[in-house]
């Protein structure tokens, strides 16, 4: 594996290094990871998602937003995130990958769906971790895995039932929005392993 650094001028007014993790032998598969507001690419699920993608032959681009450098995100700045994603992914997408998986965590889930609508590839799939309800309602037309815990304020049995015809769901009892169990670190660790294993099975077409 090698890492290529691509620097972008973020609309948040800072220069942000994006790091593309590449296979030693050229791959035609790409995974793009879009983190949440308070859940960065270095948090457990996304860290291991990167490793899992690499071990399954994907090049992986874990995106960092400009506000994660400035340390602040105001409500009126949220529309800037789409431009951040465009700038981060555009140089990589020019490589003409045939298979793309977009991973969105919470705030990153609608960004992943918006990006998916712009792509024309042989195979496209989405993994949405703790997605917002509105994102799931607009995910029609893509192969989608949704992951959420019952202790997450965003968890809604009604949303899951309403989208079960177009989304493969994995629901984890007692897991919160941070994909953790606040009262049991062992359960948290096991849950992360199960989540990434389910995501791997989804990528391999086993779910």
What is the CA-based Rg, rounded? 16 Å
Full CATH superfamily name: Alpha/Beta hydrolase fold, catalytic domain
CATH architecture tag: 3-Layer(aba) Sandwich
The overall pLDDT average reads 93
Would you write up a description of this structure?
With 207 residues, the chain is an alpha/beta fold. It has a single domain (2-203), classed as Rossmann fold. Helix content is 34%, strand content 26%. The protein has 7 helices and 8 strands. It has helices at residues 44-55, 67-70, 80-93, 108-116, 133-137, 157-163, 185-203, and strands at 2-9, 15-22, 29-34, 59-62, 99-105, 123-129, 143-149, 167-172. The strands form 2 sheets. It has a 6-stranded parallel β-sheet, with helices on both faces. Strands 1-2 form a two-stranded antiparallel ribbon. β1 and β2 (15-22) form a beta hairpin. α1 runs parallel beside α7. The model has no long low-confidence stretch (mean pLDDT 93).
């Amino acid at each position: 594996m090698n890492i290529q650094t691509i620097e972008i001028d973020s609309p948040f007014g800072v220069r942000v290094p994006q790091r593309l993790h590449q296979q030693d032998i050229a791959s035609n598969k790409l995974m793009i990871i879009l983190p949440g507001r308070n859940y960065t690419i270095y948090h457990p699920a996304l860290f291991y998602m990167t490793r899992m993608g690499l071990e399954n032959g994907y090049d992986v681009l874990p995106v960092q937003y400009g506000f994660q450098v400035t340390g602040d995100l105001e409500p009126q700045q949220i529309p800037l995130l789409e431009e951040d994603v465009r700038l981060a992914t555009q140089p990589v997408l020019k490589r003409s990958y045939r298979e793309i998986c977009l991973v969105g965590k919470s705030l990153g889930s609608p960004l992943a769906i918006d990006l998916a609508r712009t792509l024309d590839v042989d195979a496209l799939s989405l993994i949405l971790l703790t997605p917002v309800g509105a994102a799931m309602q607009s995910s029609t037309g893509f192969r989608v895995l949704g992951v959420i815990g019952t202790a997450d304020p965003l968890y809604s049995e009604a949303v899951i039932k309403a989208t079960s015809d177009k989304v493969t769901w994995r629901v984890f009892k007692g897991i919160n929005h941070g994909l953790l169990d606040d009262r049991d670190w062992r359960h948290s660790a096991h849950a992360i392993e199960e989540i990434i294993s389910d995501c791997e099975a989804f990528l391999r077409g086993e779910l």
